[in-house]
Design brief:
The chain is of the alpha/beta class. It has one domain. Helices cover 40% and strands 17% of the residues. The chain has 5 helices and 5 strands. It has a 5-stranded parallel β-sheet with strand order 2-1-3-4-5, sandwiched between helices. The chain is globular. The mean pLDDT is 95.
């Protein structure tokens, strides 16, 4: 399972979750910073990524279009990077079940 972290999350997160989510990326390393959400959505869909963001725009897009790609919505406000890492690490089983689900498009974590 590959996560694609949106620009509103630190790119340092990728290195701290790589053992659980191999081949995950940040939009920054892919040259997708300041890119329209539609292009990030398309990239994630074409490359089998699960988008992770605090951006409600992706939430709306997921409701409108469904999956793929799947979307993990972090409803955590302004939280330190360590908290985001903790959420992703502590919820690996829930995230795995979500990704494997045929029907679910959005997972909200907080």
């Amino acid at each position: 399972m590959k996560l694609l972290l949106d620009e509103n999350l630190s790119d340092r997160i990728v290195y701290r979750i790589g053992d659980l989510y191999p081949k995950s990326e940040h939009v920054k390393t892919l040259g997708l910073v300041h890119t329209d959400d539609a292009l990030i959505w398309k990239y994630a869909k074409e490359n089998d990524f699960v988008i992770v963001s605090k951006d409600s725009d992706f939430h709306q897009r997921s409701l409108l279009y469904g999956h793929p790609p799947k979307f993990i919505y972090l409803r955590i406000g302004n939280s330190p990077t360590s908290r985001i890492v903790e959420i992703l690490r502590n919820n690996v089983e829930i995230i795995t079940e979500f990704v494997d689900s045929e029907s679910e498009s959005i997972l909200v974590l907080g």
